[in-house]
Description:
By secondary structure, the chain is mainly beta. It has a single domain, classed as Roll (Hypothetical upf0131 protein ytfp), CATH 3.10.490. About 10% of the residues lie in helices and about 45% in strands. Strands 2-5-1-7-6 form a 5-stranded mixed beta sheet. Strands 4-3-8 form a 3-stranded antiparallel beta sheet, with no helix packed on it.
Amino acid sequence: MKLVFVYGTLKRGQRNDHYLSDAEFIGHFTTGRRYTMYDFGGYPAVCLRGRDAIEGEVYRLGKRSFSKLDELEWYPRFYQRIEIMTRYGRAWMYIVRPKLCRRRKRLPAGSWP
């Protein structure tokens, strides 16, 4: 079982939350101020460099559900995964390379929507 931190369309009530239907919701979490969130049209993406905290949710999921997330997030071609420390333990977080964030609208609140 692994933990994953989600901040966009995978959160409860968002259009891709069904990908986490077999996962256990652990709780809400806000990262430290070291990221920047950008609007990629119908979804957000986070870059590692920045000064914003990102608001999201932490889930515990099995290997099969994690593989489905990798497919949805186009890992590793588009999103990369990093491990972050949450109050629930270490969790994976999907981020994009900074060059992909150029010319995108920054979301200063670090929250989607």
